[in-house]
UniProtKB/TrEMBL annotation:
The chain crosses the membrane at residues 460-485, 497-518, 581-602, 640-660, 680-697, 703-725. One of its GO terms (cellular component) is G protein-coupled receptor heterodimeric complex. This is Gamma-aminobutyric acid type B receptor subunit 2. InterPro entries: ANF_lig-bd_rcpt, GPCR3_GABA-B, GPCR_3, GPCR_3_C, Peripla_BP_I. Keywords: Cell membrane, Coiled coil, Disulfide bond, G-protein coupled receptor, Glycoprotein, Membrane, Phosphoprotein, Postsynaptic cell membrane, Receptor, Signal, Synapse, Transducer, Transmembrane, Transmembrane helix. Residues 1-16 form the signal peptide. It comes from the Eukaryota. Residues 800-815 have a biased composition (Low complexity). Gene3D superfamilies: 3.40.50.2300. GO terms for biological process: gamma-aminobutyric acid signaling pathway.
Length: 1075
């Protein structure tokens, strides 16, 4: 301690921050008591502190009043020496020692100051060594209350800890039994809160938590405070950080009628909530956050009109101080009263010493500890009325009146006063406004939680159960109807077995709807009843959906399959049978059973109570009900439900896609295809709504149950009605009518089929179907034309080509040309000998559209124009069986079937085995020529026997005109065109060459001795010299001589026998029609 004293004594001499001696005012040495005042006039940065000037002026005014009007210090005059501490402990201690050592003859028995707690603490540690009593007017740090560390310290300002009894009385007054403490991590704030927590525990008030935060990190602490769910918050922090705290509280919702904030503060701190420059909130938001805030501070005025010890009332003091041109700050009245407390202590000590015959106080010396002890004793016993109210001390702290203020509409209003002497909390004090809580009710300290199980209302459950039971009865009636009329043709066409499966699925769904309403109110208490109900729900809903929707899905799949195959031109005789569709439904059902069984086995469902939103009791605001609802839950419920949702969602998507694709398709063989699509739409829409609502309104048990079950019942009932009501209606009205004939727009009168009157619509349908047929055939012809063009353009494999004719077979060259040098020979040699064609120069092939078309007609089978409904042969070629048509000739059907099989095999072989390109080209040309030679010779039967080649003589003149040739022939063709008996007419394109032969004429060489034979395409043979035989052949087949078949052409055969015995045959085609 001696070392510290030596350091302190030597420090002023070497300090460079000493104030100028002129700052101290000296007075006459006789009977003058000097008072040292240290004020915080500026800050550490050199900026002026306005509050310091007001505090200094209040001290001056008190000294003036004492010297002029008070008789307490008779024979003495009080003089004030002051200096600036700059709110810096070092500067403050330097100013203190400067006063001691610059005027050693002037004794300073008392020290006034300061307002900064840090400076005051430093001075209060030094003054006891000089036996100087220190009185502060503005230091509120709770640390200064430690009498052991600061034995000669007093203060006329009430510290934060002195308001703890007032806070405790305020909390008790509103019946709050649970609070939370929040303080800034500085001693001036945390120490007072720690003392308060101790007093609260002694008063049997629970402090849930004591939370400390820093200025840079407070958001996490506020979130933790919110999670504690305590609504009464006693806070202590600087008004500089207060805007940030309340801005965050606003964002967290910790304001309003549910919260009560009690903050250490004064109205003189200003409306700090109006400064939003350092926050993220608007001014209105921050104003809403501080609405209803309770502020606690010292009451700095006299209650009532009673004058103070100095003779001044509050009004006179304020009036006189304002005349000095300075504002009244927070510590101005306390500074005035501090000077009076010092003078009153000196007066009492002087009187005591005179009565005891001791030396007067003017003989004070820094080493006189006895006189310092007397000052300390008299100061502790003071009790007077100052301009700031009653002044008394408890230890080093002033015991004063605590005031409660509330922010009401952005204005701070005084609402209550607490008198520590009587421990009375007065809400009816003068100039006090009524306390106003937001919402008109006092906030509750902590909510009392009570559990309540929410169940489905009995009325709603019984109503839904009755509707589900009615649905089961309806489904049973439909099932009986379907079984009873299962042999009826109309029911057979609708796949009754699939309908039965749909009915069973709907019954399962109805049963699951009833199970959805079983809960705590209807099931027995305890046991595993609810878990079993959860398992049954999963099985029934999943299986019912798969059976009901699966049957509609498979029907839609069948319609879509038929629709897509009919567009591609390939429709099989056997549509998808019911057995195949039932297998698909069983596969869907197996997937459901597998998923649910794995769920129940691996992760079984149990009864789980799910908390809903809290509900405040309408009678007791402190009671909060925690509603709970029973749910089926397992450890991985989301994963299992996700698997089912994905699987069934894909099924719904595919189903609605196929239903949309076939929305305009009406197939007579499936008389409920349109209603199936409507059912699919209904199920898809309802399923989506149910899944969404199950997640949105799950907290309202009754509403969720009624809404979800209503949608399920509506969807299921709609599906049943769409499937069976039209059937019941049709059977009731038209039980004996044929459903297929009815759906085709036909009516039977006297066993003769006729069209309905709507001829325009029927013609439109026929033209539309025929248009599709022609487009496909044109596409096929284009492919063949391109193929033949490539064959013509490619160079020949060799310069020579040989053709052999043996036993009536003829091999044609790649390019047919006429030869005038044919030699004669007898017919026997001609038949037995091998004929070889001499090498002929082949011209460069050129493209001739008419020649290409003629060549194409000679290679590909003929194209028979079709009506809107194909004939029997065309139907057989496309592998479609129309059961409504009359049976045709069995032999022709078999022949057409075999021809179609051969044609299909020829199409598949090139896909399986593809030879080289050159070899393929040679093979294709040889095959085409061989086929036509075979047709010519008649050795190979034509797949269309009704189209025979006609024998006709080559004419030497020009062909007749197109009109002369095609007159009777075209008429005969239109009359003899073969088709379906149902459609006896034909629609033939106007530009078809089948009805109008080309008008261009051609010539064949005249029949002289050079022409040895004529190849008759009609009768398929090579005739002798007498060309009249060909005409005779035509006469023998006279009824078909006028046929307009594209194969009815005349080929002329010319033979030339060279000198060396080589026979050359030239075959060329005429462009005239067969006679």
């Amino acid at each position: 301690m001696r070392v510290l004293l030596l350091v302190l004594l030597a420090w002023p001499c070497c300090s460079s921050n000493l104030s100028s001696p002129r700052a101290l005012r000296a007075g006459p040495p006789e009977h003058v008591i000097s008072l040292l005042g240290l004020f915080d006039l500026t800050t550490t940065t050199g900026a002026a502190r306005p509050e310091g000037r007001s505090e200094l002026e209040a001290a001056r005014m008190a000294v003036k009043h004492i010297n002029l009007y008070s008789s307490m210090l008779r024979g003495y005059k009080l003089r004030l020496l002051y200096n600036d501490t700059k709110c810096d402990p070092g500067v403050g201690v330097d100013a203190f020692f400067h006063a001691l050592y610059t005027r050693p003859s002037t004794k300073l028995p008392m020290l006034l100051g300061s307002a900064c707690s840090e400076v005051t603490e430093s001075l209060a540690k030094v003054t006891p060594y000089w036996n100087i009593v220190q009185v502060s007017f503005g230091s509120t740090s709770p640390a200064l209350s430690d009498r052991r560390e600061f034995p000669l310290f007093y203060r006329t300002v009430a510290p934060d800890s002195s308001h703890n009894p007032a806070r405790l009385a305020f909390v008790r007054g509103f019946g709050w039994d649970t609070v939370t403490a929040l303080s800034q991590d500085e001693d001036v704030f945390t120490l007072a809160v720690n003392d308060l927590v101790t007093e609260l525990e002694e008063a049997n008030i629970t402090c849930t938590a004591t939370i400390t935060f820093s200025e840079s990190d407070f958001k996490d602490q506020l979130r933790y405070l919110r999670d504690l769910d305590t609504r009464i918050i006693i806070a202590s922090f600087s008004h500089k950080v207060a805007p940030k705290i309340f801005c965050e509280a606003y964002q967290l919702g910790m304001y309003g009628s549910d919260y009560a904030w009690i903050l250490q503060g004064s109205p003189l701190d200003g409306a700090w909530w109006a400064d939003v420059s350092k926050t993220d909130c608007s001014q209105s938001a921050l104003k809403a956050a501080v609405e209803g805030l309770i502020l606690v501070s010292s009451h700095n005025s006299i209650v009532g009109s009673e004058p103070s010890l100095s003779g001044l009332t509050n009004a006179k003091f304020e009036e006189e101080f304002r005349q000095r041109g300075l504002p009244i700050t927070r510590y101005t009245p306390q500074t005035y009263d501090a000077v009076w407390a010092i003078v009153l202590t000196l007066h009492k000590t002087e009187s005591q010493r005179r009565s005891l015959g001791l030396a007067p106080i003017s003989n004070f010396d820094y080493g006189d500890w006895r006189m310092a002890h007397e000052f300390h004793r008299e100061m502790a016993g003071l009790d007077f009325l100052g301009v700031s109210g009653p002044v008394s001390f408890s230890g080093s702290d002033r015991v004063g009146i605590s005031a409660f203020y509330q922010v009401q509409g952005g204005i701070v209003q005084k609402v209550a006063l607490f008198y520590p002497s009587s421990e009375i909390l007065d809400f009816e004090c003068p100039q006090c406004e009524p306390l106003r809580w937001q919402g008109g009710q006092v906030p509750i300290a902590k909510r009392e939680f009570r559990l309540r199980v929410v169940t489905i209302e009995r009325t709603a459950f019984y109503s839904v159960a009755c509707l589900a039971g009615a649905g089961i009865v309806l489904a049973t009636v439909f099932l009986g109807f379907n079984l009873y009329f299962r042999k009826l043709k109309y029911i057979k066409l609708s796949s009754p077995r699939l309908n039965n499966i749909a009915v069973v699925g709907c019954i399962l769904v109805y049963t699951a709807v009833i199970l959805l309403g079983l809960d705590h109110a209807t099931l027995p208490a305890g046991g595993t009843y609810f878990a079993n109900v959860c398992t049954a729900r999963a099985y029934l809903l999943s299986a019912g959906f798969s059976l009901a929707f699966g049957s509609m899905f498979t029907k839609t799949y069948r319609v879509h399959r038929i629709f897509t195959r009919s567009q591609s031109g390939v429709v099989k005789n056997k549509l998808l049978q019911d057995t195949q569709l039932i297998s698909l439904i069983c596969a869907l059902l197996l997937v459901d059973i597998l998923i649910v069984t794995l769920w129940v086995s691996i992760d079984p469902m149990q009864r789980h109570m799910r908390n809903l939103s809290l509900e405040i009791s309408a009678i007791e605001r402190s009671v909060v009900y925690q509603p709970q609802v029973e749910v089926c839950r397992s450890q991985h419920t989301s994963g299992w439900l996700g698997a089912l949702y994905v699987y069934k969602g894909l099924l719904l998507i595919v189903g609605v896609y196929m239903a949309w694709e076939t929305r305009r398709v009406k197939i007579p063989a499936l008389n409920d295809s349109q209603y199936i699509g409507m059912s699919v739409y209904s199920v898809v829409i309802t399923s989506g709504i149910v899944v969404v609502l199950a997640n949105l309104i799950s907290e309202r048990a009754t509403l969720a149950f009624v809404t979800i079950t209503a949608l399920i019942l509506a969807s299921t009932s709609t599906t049943l009605c769409l499937l069976f009501v039209p059937k019941i209606h049709t059977i009731w009205l038209h039980q004996d009518e044929d459903p297929i004939v009815e759906s085709m727009g036909l009516k039977i009168e006297c066993n003769t089929r006729r069209f309905v009157i709507d001829e325009t619509r029927e013609r439109y349908y026929r033209v539309e179907v025929q248009n599709k047929v022609y487009r496909r055939e044109l596409a096929a012809l284009d492919v063949e034309i391109n193929k033949l063009e490539r064959m013509l353009i490619e160079p020949p494999p060799s310069p020579t080509t040989s053709v052999s004719v043996s036993h009536g077979s003829v091999s044609l060259p790649g390019s047919l040309k006429e030869d005038d040098g044919m030699s004669e020979g007898d017919e026997a040699e001609e038949e037995d000998s091998e004929v070889r064609l001499s090498p002929l120069p082949r011209p460069v092939p050129t493209y001739n559209p008419r020649g290409a078309a003629a060549l194409l007609l000679s290679v590909v089978p003929s194209v028979v124009p079709r009506a809107s409904w194909p004939c029997a042969q065309a139907a057989e070629r496309q592998q479609v069986t129309f059961r409504s048509e009359p049976e045709l000739d069995q032999a022709s059907e078999n022949e057409a079937s075999s021809t179609s099989a051969v044609a299909l095999l020829k199409k598949l072989l090139p896909r399986i085995w593809k030879p080289s390109r050159a070899k393929a080209n040679r093979s294709a040309i040889a095959a085409a020529l061989r086929m036509h030679v075979n047709y010519v010779t008649g050795l190979v039967p034509d797949p269309h026997p009704d189209r025979k080649f006609s024998l006709s003589a080559c004419i030497a003149a020009e062909s007749p005109a197109a009109g002369a040739v095609g007159g009777a022939g075209a008429a005969a063709f239109r009359e003899r065109a073969r088709g379906s008996p149902r459609f006896p007419h034909r629609i033939v394109p106007a530009g078809s060459g089948l009805l109008a032969p080309t008008a261009r004429t051609g010539k064949c060489r005249s029949l002289d001795t050079s022409i040895d034979a004529v190849l008759c395409v009609r009768c398929g043979g090579v005739q002798g010299r007498n060309a009249a035989a060909c005409a005779g052949c035509a006469r023998r087949d006279k009824p078909r001589a006028a046929s307009l078949s594209p194969n009815c052409d005349v080929w002329c055969v010319e033979q030339n026998l060279a000198a060396d015995g080589e026979l050359t045959i030239t075959i060329h085609r005429t462009e005239s029609q067969c006679t």
